[in-house]
Design brief:
Elements (H helix, E strand, L loop, with lengths): L6 E8 L5 E9 L4 E11 L2 H10 L9 H15 L7 E12 L4 E5 L2 H8 L3 E3 L3 H5 L9 H10 L6 E6 L2 E7 L12 E8 L2 H11 L17 H8 L20 H4 L5 H20 L9 E4 L6 H10 L4 E3 L10 H15 L6 H4 L9 E3 L2
Parallel strand pairs: 1-4, 4-6, 7-10, 10-11
Antiparallel strand pairs: 1-2, 2-3, 4-5, 6-12, 7-8, 8-9
Bound molecules: adenosine-5'-triphosphate and the ligand CC(=O)N[C@H]1[C@@H]2OC[C@@H](O2)[C@@H](O)[C@@H]1O[C@H](C)C(=O)O.
The site of ligand AH0 has 17 residues, from strand 4 and strand 8.
Length: 363
């Protein structure tokens, strides 16, 4: 399908923070980014968020009909305003991720979306990778490689996504293709915003620590931070990936702390996980470009800047859109799947061979 042609692809992402659906248009042939197009955000209501939260950890066959329906309907609303696109990359909502056990589960039926939209929909991006022994995540790295080319980078650099979970991609833009040996190294760094959000919900009834306001008034408690960094995940060599709630018991580490110190310490944990992760880079990167909601948190950004040897900037510094990068990634990956190009490789997910993840529904 579309061999070598530039197509207008719409990508969607409903991330681990459960805040809403991002949708973005990318013009690409599946190799080169030609242009970025319009974007759209459709927030989940509080009721919808509660339903999704209740479905976390569930698998196909469990009682997830309401969650699945609302994910599909929210996507249809997010996509309703777009015109003139050729196909859709539909990530869905990850409810459970256990790549070495039960697999990986993204809620939402791409075939239903294809029928409703009258366009081909590429979906279920992670299962093929897991079947071939991969982590099934992260998948954005092949897109990060294209972004590195798009910004004209000449030396190795890193992309860091600070979503619910953090993930890091080291890219060598001197390579020709993302699947070339030595072009990419990628993995999940650890928890980023998800446990901090859970803390804010428990202690303050707020969805997140806006602008790091609470953390800014507290102190990082070294003992709790050390216990956190003792976790075997940080010593594990990449590739490696995480479920949203893999570190949910880290809330116990700050249970005795006052709210502000607890928020500062959890922000410090997210930053420290990234610092540990940077040790795995094959060569020191020229710079670290940050995407995802955590780049809006000045306390988290300041901690990263203080702890790393390279410049740390939001991706906006190079003209990219940090709120939409993941949605754009799934637009790009959809075109790769449609063209039969790989979307992951041994150094991004640990998969045994190059694999193109995803099912194409509709014509
Ligand atoms: N102004 C802000 N101040 C502090 N934190 C913020 C701000 N804006 C967003 N965030 C954090 O970013 C989170 C949303 O990030 P993002 O949308 O990248 O997550 P996601 O895509 O759902 O996650 P993932 O990439 O893990 O799937 C919010 O839940 C919040 O914790
Ligand atoms: C299983 C799953 O949905 N993982 C997400 C999650 O959110 C961030 C991190 O954990 C990353 O591994 C991945 O998403 C991004 C988009 C990825 O696959 O690159």
């Amino acid at each position: 399908m579309w061999n070598g042609q530039v197509v207008r692809a719409l990508g969607t992402m409903s991330g681990t923070s459960l805040d809403g659906v991002d949708a973005a248009l990318v013009e690409t042939d599946g190799e080169r980014i030609v242009a970025f197009g319009p974007t759209q955000y459709r927030r989940y209501t509080d009721v919808e968020q509660t339903t999704l939260r209740g479905a976390l950890g569930m698998w196909p066959g469990d009682d997830i009909q309401a969650a699945t329906r609302l994910v599909e309907d929210a996507h249809l609303e997010a996509l309703a305003g777009f015109e003139g696109y050729d196909l859709v990359g539909f990530h869905g909502q990850t409810l459970a991720h256990d790549p070495h056990g039960r697999g990986t589960h993204q809620a939402g039926d791409g075939a239903r979306l294809a029928q409703a939209l009258g366009r081909p929909v590429v979906w279920d991006f992670r299962t093929n990778d897991v079947r071939l022994g991969g982590e099934g995540a992260p998948l954005a790295p092949f897109f990060h490689f294209a972004c590195a080319k798009w910004i004209g980078a000449e030396m190795p650099l890193c992309f860091l996504n600070l979503g619910g979970v953090g993930n890091l991609t080291w890219v060598d833009p001197r390579k020709t293709r993302p699947e070339d040996q030595g072009a990419l190294l990628a993995f999940d760094t650890g928890p980023a915003n998800a446990p901090l959000n859970d803390l804010m919900q428990q202690r303050r009834g707020q969805a997140f620590d806006k602008d790091g306001a609470l953390a800014a008034t507290g102190e990082v408690v070294a003992g709790a931070l050390e216990l956190f960094l003792d976790d075997g995940y940080f010593r594990k060599m990449p590739p490696k990936s995480l479920d949203r709630d893999a570190f949910s018991d880290m809330l116990d580490l700050v249970r005795e702390l006052a709210d502000a110190d607890a928020a500062a310490t959890m922000t410090g944990m997210a930053a420290a996980a990234v610092m540990q992760a940077m040790e795995h880079c094959p060569t020191p990167p020229d710079r670290l470009l940050v995407t995802g909601g955590g780049r809006h948190n000045p306390v988290m950004m300041q901690m990263l800047r203080a702890g790393l040897d390279c410049p740390v900037d939001p991706v906006e510094a190079v003209g990219l859109n940090g709120d939409m990068l993941e949605a754009q990634a799934f637009a790009y990956l959809a075109v790769r799947v449609a063209r039969g190009l790989p979307t992951s490789c041994p150094t991004t997910t640990g998969v045994r061979a190059l694999v193109g993840g995803g099912t194409v529904s509709g014509t």
